[in-house]
Design goal:
The chain is α+β, with helices and mostly antiparallel strands. Helix content is about 40%, strand content about 10%. The chain has a two-stranded antiparallel ribbon. It is elongated. The model has no long low-confidence stretch (mean pLDDT about 90).
Length: about 80
């Protein structure tokens, strides 16, 4: 991971979920740079929301399981 990627993870660890604009402002990075770093970080972050309301946060393990887990919806008929 790049030094800037580590900076983004450290920022999200200390400040919690943030929109891209706050990451840009805090680390003095351009929007394309932040987007590239977030893509590089991959499964270490969780993306919350969509569009302008999107926030990024550090993913945390669930017990001994990875932070990213599949989620299924099963209706009353079992489908």
């Amino acid at each position: 991971m790049s030094p800037k990627g580590k900076d983004v993870l450290a920022l999200l660890t200390t400040r919690g979920g943030l929109p891209s604009s706050s990451i840009q402002e805090a680390l003095k990075l351009s929007q394309p740079t932040v987007s590239r770093i977030l893509s590089e970080i991959g499964d270490e972050i969780v993306v919350l929301g969509r569009g302008k309301s999107t926030q990024y946060a550090v993913a945390h393990a669930i017990g001994t399981f990875p932070a990213q887990q599949p989620l299924w919806h099963i209706d009353q008929s079992g489908a």
